[in-house]
Amino acid sequence: MDKNYWIDYYKKNKAPKQPSLFAMNIINILQPQKKLLELGCGNGRDSIFFANKGILVTGIDQAESSIRKLNEEHTDITFLLDDFVNTNLFNENNYDYIYSRFSMHSISLEDEKKLLNKAYKSLKNDGKIFIEARSIKDDFYGLGEKIGKNEYIYEKHYRRFIEINETEKYMKEIGYKIELCVEDKGFAVYKNQDPVVIRIIASK
């Protein structure tokens, strides 16, 4: 995880404040009073959006200044300073929903597999996981210094680009039931950027 990059990014208050397209796309699937864990909540924009719709949200991130500000401004939501791969929040059968937007590609493939296993155990029966992440078809793929399989450091920022078939296969092996697995543009438009991203929705 490129921890220092994200700490600096959120200190500069660069991130959009409105909910992501992904959050708005899935909101009709979510039910009020159900428990949701957001992995890598950043400035909290999606966590806040979900909470305002009656979802019981816990958001975790390693950006200390961001978590501190969120706790000061949103006392009705649980925001925790933590490493979302190694957090002890993954209690068995604890969450109705686990949400990971643009955080899966910030960790290694080894950590992705560890995370997906922990998340599966932590979901209640019929609970769902929602994933959006950068694809190997992204325009940034191949730029910068290659440090591993599909891993690059470009402009001092680590990214791992995800192979959709690899992640889908591994999730099925764990036991997830894949409900949606798509790869396209138009999902994460930001200013003049429209990257190819992956969206996966799966249930336990």
UniProtKB/TrEMBL annotation:
Enzyme class, broadest EC rank: transferase
CDD domains for the chain: AdoMet_MTases
Alphabetically ordered keywords of this record: Methyltransferase, Transferase
Molecular function, one GO term: methyltransferase activity
Keyword Methyltransferase: yes
Family matches, as Gene3D superfamilies: Vaccinia Virus protein VP39
Domain Methyltransferase positions: 37-127
EC number(s) on file: 2.1.1.-
InterPro entries linked to this entry: Methyltransf_25 (IPR041698), SAM-dependent_MTases_sf (IPR029063)
Annotated signal sequence range: none
Record bears the keyword Transferase: yes
Biological process terms in GO annotation: methylation
Protein name as annotated: Class I SAM-dependent methyltransferase
Organism encoding this protein: Romboutsia sedimentorum
